[in-house]
UniProtKB/TrEMBL annotation:
The keyword Protease does not apply. GO terms for molecular function: hydrolase activity, acting on glycosyl bonds. Belongs to the glycosyl hydrolase 74 family. It comes from Streptomyces curacoi. One of its GO terms (biological process) is xyloglucan metabolic process. It comes from the Bacteria. This is 1,4-beta-glucanase.
Length: 739
């Protein structure tokens, strides 16, 4: 689904400064070293609340030597291994912790055909100055355990060009030699299986401001090829080496805008042809032209084999612009291959298949039959799903010529008969989760607000929500989600959408209706929303994606009319008192001031002042069932509590950093709800639970379940003591229960 809103997948601008190319010593063991917790941890069982994909699959790699073994990479959600016995994906990078959040984006992966258990990952989500450097993980047991080497360069798995590649390659002449293409620092080489890295001598690429650098690495026999993404269309963009020491531009290569950026390449050993897909931009967005070419590696002859040239007109009169993305060859049938279009919005992307080396093509979209019953959200609020978009990951099973998979911006589709397609996504969860509600009553124990896929009602935690994305209207990214504490059947949501930006539900989130009206600000700056305890008042805050803050608006008629609340602190997230319907609260992070309303949100007045301000993350949370019991979570300043409705706050001494806080059912015999926190009690950032009002904490996650950055939101289950739900940025909703 293409939406107008920005999402957490949007590529951040800027370029990283060039760094010294020095390999650092490897770190044995897990990729994030454990530190002692403040208290003995309680064993928990962790699982993903099933949605089914929901993110951009940037690469899929079948192992050429092992039937049923495959790997997948994502832009922000780590890497996975396919388990053929369970027909599902196994996450491989959940051990990466808080300080390593930038490593959850997988830039590239590689396997060694000669050593089937070896796996390599190149990690690094962003290459901007504020991001940490990349790293390479290497495994001898298919990703069960890892050894890590930190790089002195940055990678960009969630930037433009993240669907190209692979940029990582095991040299077919020597399994100890690895090659890694970077965006800003040319080509790197390792001669000790990735333990240390240095600049590859003789490589001619010279990075430009576009910062794509090496887009692909592929072996054609003993010759290595490297795609270069910083060409202007007339300068060389494909290089090769036959000895691993000297590189040259490939003669006779295609030129022009349709062949500006090499996207992916695949070598057909049976015919000695190298197939290369091209586009005029790295993608996944921004492509409007492209082509497909093959190179006969025996005589150096190039032949264009583009299935359909971009630039035509659809039946509806729209320009049919697109580039080409994935390419894969059939290891069992020489001359058989598949390629995909990319960024083809008007006529919709497709996968083309050829059995004669690209002389003729068949569009598999034309006969495709889809079954998305396992992940109903893929209908996007329509009658049936479309073939997909952002198709750059494309793979063909080397042991089954009719088994083809392709990734999209939300899922991984597969077929075993070239006609019937279904998601092959089980176990792979990549949602960026923004809001969580665990209702106190009703069928669902969880409602989630997410980036790109709006709001989902989870009637089961082990199956993708049967209703799919909340509709009427459909949102892209959710910006607000709230439930009336004393009337839990009433739920409201806000988000980025083309047909309205706010909606309400009177059945706990199962069905929805749009607000009858909305402020004009809602279209371009939909922000968080709150409803008071009895659901009679709505308070909607407006914040543009660029950070500009606008006045909040209030409605007392379920969204039929709205009025501006001039005394409300602009941009602050509203919090409703769970026991008193006349009270709302807001924390002004700019001034460190708590504001409160005692007239149902008509006006706000300052209460406590001098609280922490200017920090990068704050969260104000009201304890369930209690009037005026507020908790202020402050990233670098810890935790504060007020029991008088924000008139005064006291510092909680049991932790020094608190990123997000939530409540759940009290322990047996306890007189206060269980508190769940992502924070730090000593040196490690972890997930904690307190059953005594934050006097003491026990760590409940472990070193193998950390999921990178998990500071968005957390909540306990009000009906099951010990169960907690955690929002991750790329690994969906993780929920845990005492083992």
């Amino acid at each position: 689904m293409r939406t107008s809103q920005p999402s957490r997948r949007a590529v951040l601008a800027g370029t990283a400064a060039a760094a010294a190319l020095t390999g650092l010593p490897s770190l044995a063991g897990p990729a994030s070293a454990a530190e002692p917790a403040a208290a003995a941890g309680q064993a928990y069982r962790w699982r993903s609340a099933v949605m089914g994909g929901t993110g951009f699959i940037t690469g899929v790699l079948f192992h050429p030597s092992v039937r049923g073994l495959a790997y997948a990479r994502t832009d922000i959600g780590g890497a996975y291994r396919w388990d053929d016995r369970t027909a599902g994906w196994v996450p491989l990078t959940d051990h990466l912790g808080w300080d390593d959040w930038n490593l959850l984006g997988v830039e590239a992966m590689a396997v060694d055909p000669a050593y089937p258990n070896r796996l390599y990952l190149a990690l690094g989500t962003y290459s901007q100055s504020w991001a940490t450097n990349g790293a390479v993980l290497r495994s001898d047991d298919r990703g069960a355990t890892w050894t890590r080497t930190d790089l002195s360069v940055k990678l960009g798995a969630n930037e433009d060009g993240r669907g190209t590649g692979e940029r990582l390659l095991v040299d077919p002449r020597d399994s100890n030699v690895l090659w890694l293409g970077t965006r800003h620092d040319g080509l790197l080489k390792s001669t000790d299986r990735g333990a240390t890295w240095a600049a590859a001598s003789g490589f001619p690429g010279s990075p430009s401001a576009t910062g794509q650098g090496v887009t692909l690495l592929v072996a054609a026999g003993r010759t290595l090829y490297a795609g270069w993404g910083d060409s202007d269309g007339s300068t060389p963009n494909l290089f090769r080496t036959v000895d691993g020491r000297t590189w040259e531009a490939v003669p006779g290569r295609p030129s022009g805008t349709a062949a500006k950026v090499p996207i992916r390449a695949a070598y057909d050993r049976g015919t000695s042809h190298l197939y290369v897909t091209y586009a005029n931009a790295p993608g996944p967005n921004g492509q409007s032209d492209g082509s497909v070419h093959k190179l006969c590696t025996l005589n150096g002859k190039w032949t264009e084999v583009t299935p359909v040239k971009p630039g035509g007109t659809t039946a509806e009169g729209s320009a049919d612009t697109f580039g080409y993305g994935g390419v894969a060859v059939d290891a069992r049938r020489p001359g058989t291959l598949v390629v995909s279009t990319n960024n083809r919005w008007a006529a919709v992307d497709t996968v083309f298949r050829s059995t004669d080396g690209g002389r003729t093509w068949t569009s598999l979209k034309d006969t495709a039959v889809f079954d998305v019953s396992e992940t109903p959200y893929l209908k996007w609020g329509q009658d049936k799903p479309k073939f997909g978009w952002w198709i750059q990951a494309l793979a063909l099973d080397p042991y089954d010529s009719r088994h083809i998979v392709y990734g999209t911006g939300a899922t991984l589709y597969g077929t075993r008969d070239l006609k019937n397609w279904a998601p092959q996504i089980r176990g792979l969860e990549e949602a960026s989760v923004r809001q969580l509600i665990s209702p106190p009553v009703g069928e669902a124990h969880l409602i989630s607000g997410n980036g790109d896929i709006g709001v989902m009602y989870h009637e089961s935690l082990t199956a993708s929500p049967s209703r799919g994305m909340a509709s009427n209207p459909v949102f892209g990214s959710a910006t607000g989600l709230a439930q009336a504490a004393a009337k839990p059947a009433y739920v409201v949501r806000t988000g980025w959408g083309d047909n309205g930006n706010g909606a309400y539900s009177n059945d706990g989130g199962q069905t929805w209706a749009p607000f009858k009206a909305q402020p004009s600000l809602a279209k371009d700056a939909p922000g968080p929303i709150a409803t008071n305890a009895d659901g009679s008042v709505l308070l909607w805050v407006f914040v543009h994606w660029d950070g500009t803050k606008y006045p909040a608006h209030r409605s007392a008629d379920n969204g039929a009319t709205w009025s501006e609340v001039s005394s409300y602190p602009k941009g602050a997230t509203p919090v409703a008192d769970p026991a008193d319907p006349t009270r709302f609260y807001a924390y002004d992070t700019d001034t460190g001031t708590l504001y409160a309303s005692t007239d149902s949100g008509r006006s706000f007045a300052a209460r406590a002042t001098g609280l922490p301000s200017g920090d990068t993350q704050f969260e104000l949370v009201a304890a369930p069932g209690r009037a005026g019991d507020l908790w202020l979570s402050v990233k670098w300043n810890g935790l504060y509590r007020s029991t008088d409705g924000g008139v005064s706050f006291s510092k909680v001494d049991s932790c020094w950093a608190s990123y997000t806080l939530g409540f759940g059912k009290a322990a047996d015999g306890a007189d206060y709800p269980a508190i769940y926190m992502v924070g730090s009690t000593e040196t490690i950032t972890a997930v904690y639970r307190s059953d005594d009002g934050a006097k003491t904490w026990v760590r409940i996650n472990d070193d193998q379940h950390q999921w990178g950055w998990i500071g968005e939101t957390i909540t306990g289950d009000p009906r099951i003591h010990g169960r907690v739900y955690i929002a991750t940025n790329g690994r969906g909703v993780q929920y845990g229960e005492p083992a």
